[in-house]
Amino acid sequence: MPPVPRVTLHPPLLNSATPWATTAEELGALYTSPYTGAVTTRTCLLHGFPHNPRFHQHTLFSTSSLNTYGYSPYPLSFYLSTISTLITPPQRKPFIISITGTPFEVAECISTIATFATQNNLQLYAEINLSCPNIPGKPPPAYSAEALTEYLALLPEHPEIKIGIKTPPYTYQAQYEALISVLTVFPTTLAFVTAVNTLGSCLHLSSPPCLEVGKSVWQPTLSSEAGTGVGGLGGEAVHWIALGNVDTIRRGLDKAGLQDVVVIGVGGVGEREGWLRMLSVGAGAVGVGTALGREGEKVFRRILEGGMRRPARGRERGSRMGCMLRREGSFMYSVDMSCERTRVQLQVMTWPHWLRA
What we know:
Layout: E1 13-15, H1 24-32, E2 39-40, E3 58-61, E4 64-67, H2 76-86, E5 95-99, H3 103-120, E6 124-129, H4 145-152, E7 162-167, H5 173-185, E8 192-195, E9 199-202, E10 205-206, E11 219-220, E12 231-235, H6 239-255, E13 262-266, H7 272-280, E14 285-288, H8 290-295, H9 298-305, H10 313-317, E15 323-328, E16 331-336
Parallel strand pairs: 1-14, 2-5, 5-6, 6-7, 7-8, 8-13, 13-14
Antiparallel strand pairs: 3-4, 4-12, 9-12, 10-11, 15-16
Helix pairs in contact: 1-2, 5-6
């Protein structure tokens, strides 16, 4: 069986697996938007997650967020049915179905999605979420080479659909090395890596009104199953660690000969500059989570349209820049030939097709 083609999204912008991609209405709005290149569902289980609003909550503050969520209350079958209802041929863009569970449950999910996609002639991808920090007693499997291997060992060597994994924020080199070492054992299984999920062990405090003058009483803003209010941090507060993860994972994949595995960068992107930063460090596409929760799907238009300009003539020619030009679709990329690997500067030469009236 030939390898699954490389993941290419137009535009290279999409939503990440968030609470704002749970319902059919939310997914429909993301699918019909001309400013998204794909739609990601909220992470689901084979048979649904026991969501409890008393413990599973979120708060938005400034340009960041904290959540104590688990996964979607809807099972995989709900998302397959919803997607088939939303799509009227020809399909406009792929759906990425975010899934999780035990290694055997995930393998069953992959098989179910692949069969459904084939039977209904749909472009479906699967993203295995191995990075949620909020499940008591279940640390993110992507922090462990052994746990990650358990999942990938049960997947097809040459999948019928594009499969990716979602990783947690890594904070030291040995974690990256463990990830890359496992991926090299399964070189044809994965088509993409989504980096990163929220950063765990974070706490947001609030000070409710107090009758005693001059006294503040700080308490956790959210509830959680553990009773601490500790959860996963997202939004702009994690942007810089997300950039570091995307950059390091991209370099590691390239060095390991896995250049066709695309990195989808997620973390703190809510404006055009953040999107361009993600692309510049090697992201093949960029996911948006917290900003979607704050603004709705209109955030994608703002990211794509903001500050577009035609580059100076010297950059167009590549003269005096030590670079060459490469065109892909409606973008012209300026590629620095002095770098060890390609870095995208993303000078937009023409209005992309998704921005034309």
